Structures are given as C-alpha cells and as structure tokens.
Amino acid sequence: MKQPVKSGSALLDEIDLTDSDSPSLWWLGHSGFVIKHQGIVFYVDPCLATPAGRTRTLAPPLQAAEATNADMILCTHAHPSHMDPDTLPAMLQASPRARVVIPKSTAEHACSIGVSYDRMTTTDSDLRVEYFKGGLYGRVYSVPAAHPELDWTPLGGYPHLGYLIRFGGCTIYHAGDCRMYEGIVGRLRPYNVSVALLPIDGERNFDVPQAAQLAEDIRARWLVPMHYGTFADQNEDAGRFIDHMLGFHPSVGFKVFEAGERWIIP
Length: 266
Known about the structure:
By secondary structure, the chain is α/β, with parallel strands linked by helices. The protein has helices at 8-17, 88-94, 107-112, 184-188, 208-217, 238-248; strands at residues 24-29, 32-37, 40-44, 72-74, 99-103, 120-123, 128-133, 136-144, 161-167, 170-174, 195-199, 222-226, 253-254, 262-264. It is globular, with a radius of gyration of 17 Å.
C-alpha cells in the first residue's frame, strides 16, 4: 500500500501551523481535501476508512479520531466514499464544534450513520452557507452535480452537489461526483473559479479530457484531479492526466497531489 508523504500528528501540526494569505490545500486521497484559510479549516468529502467491498491502495494520511481541527465538514452526497460512516462520527467527536454540510435530501441518511441533526447544516443548489470565526469569513455556494443524472425532486432538491468555497477573492470548486450536463459551464463561470477539484476516473464522472475542457471553459486558473489512485478499482492514473494537460490544455495550470501534501494556491 502506498504511503502518504505526511501523515498523523506531523500532518495535523503542519495544517495547524500553516498561515498564509492564500488558501492551502492537502489531499486526503480519493475526493477528500483539507482546505485552510488563515484560521478556518474545512474538510471536504473525507474518507479515512475503507468502504465495504473496496480495497485501498493508498493509505489515508489521517485517522478520523486525529482530526481535531475541523470547523466544517462538507459532504457532497451520500455515497460511503464521500459521506463515510466510519469517518464522520469520529471526526465530529474529535472536533466538537464542527458542523457537517450536506445536501438536504441526505439528512435522514446522515443521521442513520451517526451524525446528529444538531450537527448538520443542510443546503441545496443556489443556496449559501456562511462561516464566521474570530473575524474571519468563508462562504460555501452549492451547485448541482450529475451523478450520473441530476435527479432533482421538488422536496429533496438535488441529492448530489458540488461546492464553491470562497475565501476573499479565491474560489475553490469541489465537484463531488459529477458528469457533464447542460448548463454546467454557465452555472460555474460567474464564480471566477481559482481552483477546480474535478474527478477524472470517467466512471459516472468526468474523464480526463472532459475535466480538462471544463476547467478551460469555466476559466479556472488551476485544475486539480481527484477521485483516482486510492482504491484498487480506480484505474485512472496521474500520468495520462499530465500528458493530456501538457498536450491539449497548456494554458490551464494544474497541480497533481501526493496524499498528505500541502499546496498553497499561488
């Protein structure tokens, strides 16, 4: 099993001590990221255990009980590798002030895996979640994700979401699990995306060419691939992504992470 470049207490210390004007990111494997801006720490889709029926090829950089610094935990949808029943309750216990942001239609499911209703903030497309901490401010906007369809219902809204996390003038788009759908570029372009975190595995998600084209179409300054290289059933690798970006999208910056690696957005 491949090991992260930094893990455990060393990784937590690095997150806690990082203080930059621009947001910093750490990849947790699969679709999981830590995003920190000054004193605010968000986790997005952390999957720090191994979902049933899957085999890890990349060790998680953290154990859920070690995540004592979470302010908000954002889950894009209810699938176990994004709303992990073996990760969320332990993280909430380790970070007693943290809240979980989820699509409103997934609240009952989240409760069934151990997330109490008083720790949830539910949202839907075109809504905004605001977070204030010690004079600092972050916003999270939601947009629909097609996985593989939009699956909107009048009561439940969109069960799969992407999140646009904005700190100051920097916006980070985490697509969750998503395929191309009509209107996605028009929804995203007004947010002036700085960094697009996009799946590249092509199984009910963008493939490499689609992710690269979407990043260019929405005028993202940086593209970060995700949803690959963590479980044995994920065949996509970073090499083909790099070759495609260099060959077909040289105007789009990109960053390929190692698990546990820090990247401060330029």
